[in-house]
Amino acid sequence: MPARLGRYAVRRRIGSGGFATVWLAYDEQLDSPVAVKVLADNWSEDHQIRQRFVEEGRYLRKVESPNVVSVYDAGELDDGRPYLVMSYADQGTLADRLEVDGLTVAQAMEVVRQVGAGLQALHDRDILHRDIKPANVLFRSVDGPTGQTVRAMVGDLGLGKALDMSSRLTMIAGTPTYIAPEQASAQAPDARADQYSLAALAYLLLTGRPPFAHASLSDAMHPAELPPASTPERPFPPEVDQVLRRGLARSREDRYSSVTEFVRALDRALGPSTSGAPTQPWLERDPELTQPGPRPTLPPDHGALPEPTLPRRRGRRLAILSVVGLLALVVGATAGYAVQHERRPSERTVFDSTGTLSVTVPSSWDRADALDGWTPPGTDTQMPALSVGTSPDWAAKGSDEGVFLGLLSATDLPDAVPQHPECDSAGRTVDDTRDGDASMTVVYSDCPGGTVLVERIVQVSTNTLMWVQIRSDDRATANGVLDDVETHGL
Known about the structure:
Blueprint: E1 4-5, E2 8-16, E3 20-27, E4 32-39, H1 47-62, E5 71-76, E6 82-86, H2 94-100, H3 105-124, E7 127-128, E8 137-144, E9 147-154, E10 161-162, H4 181-184, H5 191-207, H6 217-221, H7 238-247, H8 259-270, H9 316-330, E11 347-351, E12 357-362, E13 367-370, E14 385-389, E15 402-409, E16 425-426, E17 430-434, E18 437-447, E19 451-461, E20 464-472, H10 475-483, E21 485-487
Antiparallel strand pairs: 1-2, 2-3, 3-4, 4-6, 5-6, 7-10, 8-9, 11-12, 12-21, 13-14, 14-15, 15-20, 16-18, 17-18, 18-19, 19-20
């Protein structure tokens, strides 16, 4: 993890894909968080991919709309890779929201309204998006007249194209569920292709199911008959089906003349309950998405161990996606000192974002995943770390449970682990060597709330220590979590 990207101080990784990685960074001159998108190293020599990456920034910079992600700056790293500095969507994506909760009809219409406004702003500058889908609808906290609310923004113009160049477009690109038939068949698309994608998104948000089950772009070339939007559980006026059917017409000539016209027709068809300005806040902010991760409980005289500064955590659903994505990287790895056991259904395994650390915890420990590392005090080096517990501030509440793992640079074990005088009983220091890794462990019991607290320091390499802190209601759970702490690649 880089310490800086250009003049921007890196805080954590937000996400990555096949072509780029996005980092949460801080603009120290303007005192503001930003998202920095960096072209992946393996594509830095591909002229076409590099050009498309740079074009995304140029397209976004041309558009002045609150519903389109803003580009503030651009540059190149020392290794020549380009980067874009953009507005930070602290409330995640529409895809994140849909993994956990559905939307009400009014909320769905407001998403369509705001995304439609963003698309129309692009079209007014003769720019196509060509890849509208839930993952490319971003949410950001903004200050409004009645306090903070959430704004939907169109992002990721990696497939975007100027309309005057669309006739020369021969590459088929897009997501099968949302792509217009003419775009799937490599015809030159126009703004009505984005309208089709928005209509498919609207159908999904209103009904809770995608309009089609396209498994490939060839399926999208010949879409099936659109199923009715209404169900006995969620009925809609007949006019809604008419609007959606027109927006998803196979022939673009049968669609509305503009995105704005489609949005207005859908708003009218849904009736008075969704028309006009939305009640604020129209979408609940998720404070956990930007809440700092918990910090291990340390007394002032903790000696040689620094106090961790954990990054802002991603939502629980995003952490789960990170685990899935990293699992393939660590399957079969044998590095580390932990005793392994068969994972039970009531447990889940969490990895940090680099795949260096992992721990298996009870499934009820599903809050406050902070996976993207920490910077030990006195250094400017980002080190792997993770934290997970039963509440966002598990370490501060004596009755809650959780675990923190963090690496730090050191050549020797400290003289003692952090002390906890708030606990009534402290076990003896256990010095051990397992798989060549020296460690020291102390178990504190009868802590506030009746919890058990475990401190362990492990020398995982000649110049790296791992600090482990566990708080649990019982010794057996703490021992099980401690046994399932692992390092990978050290």
